């Protein structure tokens, strides 16, 4: 069974704030979901949040994936299905793939901030590393341990400590990322992860390569 979350309730929890702040006395100041939602949506510059995509924007099929870095089913899809989908459909010009992050908690938000720290060119390589090590970093005993493990992933990918600190302490970016997540997920009626829009049709749940390719082939005719 898919791990399901009701994002409308999640958005309300985010808006309530309070529970999702990094300790004020921490030596590393990181935005939590409560802090990220501290401003009204109209005050947030969402233009700074780049859409992360692969493939030809003019491809006949567009796939939009909604996924969380803390979701085991999302990890399963990326480890067992996505690489084959990329080779067979994205790299061959049949599919334009767009990845949109979902934040259920501050840890997923921080992971996304690390992934974005390398820019669009390195985003998907970092995403692969974050998913591959999910069972390690996402189960850290404390927020500090989780942050340290996420930073190690970034360092392994070639980011510098200063780059990582700047990215993870960027509260304007965190607010914008949460605002974009809320707007997109509410518009597209996303209720669980992973979820996919395939030429606008919503499909939920982890899929095998055979299952997913059948959906794509139907759209390709």
Low-confidence stretches: 1-28
The strand line-up of the biggest sheet is: 1-3-2-4-5
Major beta sheet summary: 5 strands, mixed
CATH class: Alpha Beta
Strand content: 5-15%
Shape category: globular
The tally of helices reads 10
Domain Thioredoxin: 24-221
Protein name: Periplasmic thiol:disulfide interchange protein DsbA
Organism: Candidatus Rhodobacter oscarellae
Function: May be required for disulfide bond formation in some proteins.
Explain this structure to me?
With 221 residues, this protein is α+β, with helices and mostly antiparallel strands. It has a single domain (7-220), classed as Glutaredoxin. The protein contains 10 helices and 5 strands, in the order ααββαβααααααββα. The protein has a 5-stranded mixed β-sheet, with helices on both faces. Mean pLDDT is 85; it is low at 1-28. Residues 24-221 form the Thioredoxin domain.
Short description:
By secondary structure, the protein is α+β, with helices and mostly antiparallel strands. The protein contains ten helices and five strands. The chain has one domain (7-220): Glutaredoxin, CATH 3.40.30.10.
How are the secondary structure elements laid out?
Elements: H1 7-16, H2 33-36, E1 52-54, E2 61-67, H3 72-90, E3 95-101, H4 106-117, H5 119-132, H6 134-137, H7 143-156, H8 161-168, H9 171-187, E4 195-198, E5 201-204, H10 209-220
Parallel strand pairs: 2-3
Antiparallel strand pairs: 1-3, 2-4, 4-5
Helix pairs in contact: 3-10, 4-5, 4-7, 4-8
Protein name: Periplasmic thiol:disulfide interchange protein DsbA
Pfam families: Thioredoxin_4
Family: Belongs to the thioredoxin family. DsbA subfamily.
């Amino acid at each position: 069974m898919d791990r399901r979350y009701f994002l409308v309730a999640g958005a309300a929890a985010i808006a309530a704030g309070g529970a999702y702040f990094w300790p004020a006395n921490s030596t590393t100041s990181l935005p939590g979901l409560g802090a990220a939602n501290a401003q009204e949506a109209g005050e947030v510059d969402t233009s700074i949040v780049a859409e992360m995509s692969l493939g030809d924007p003019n491809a006949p099929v567009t796939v939009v994936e909604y996924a969380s870095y803390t979701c085991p089913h999302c990890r399963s899809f990326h480890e067992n299905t996505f690489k084959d989908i990329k080779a067979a459909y994205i790299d061959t010009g049949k599919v334009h793939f767009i990845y949109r992050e979902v934040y259920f908690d501050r840890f997923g938000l921080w992971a996304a901030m690390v992934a974005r720290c390398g820019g669009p060119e390195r985003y998907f390589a970092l995403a692969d590393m974050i998913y591959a090590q999910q069972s390690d970093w996402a189960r850290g005993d404390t927020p500090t341990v989780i942050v340290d493990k996420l930073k190690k992933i970034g360092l392994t990918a070639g980011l510098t400590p200063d780059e990582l600190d700047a990215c993870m302490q960027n509260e304007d970016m965190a607010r914008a990322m949460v605002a974009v997540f809320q707007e997109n997920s509410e518009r597209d009626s996303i209720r669980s992860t992973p979820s996919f829009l395939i030429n606008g049709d919503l499909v939920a749940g982890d899929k095998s390569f055979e299952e997913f390719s059948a959906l794509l082939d139907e759209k390709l005719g």
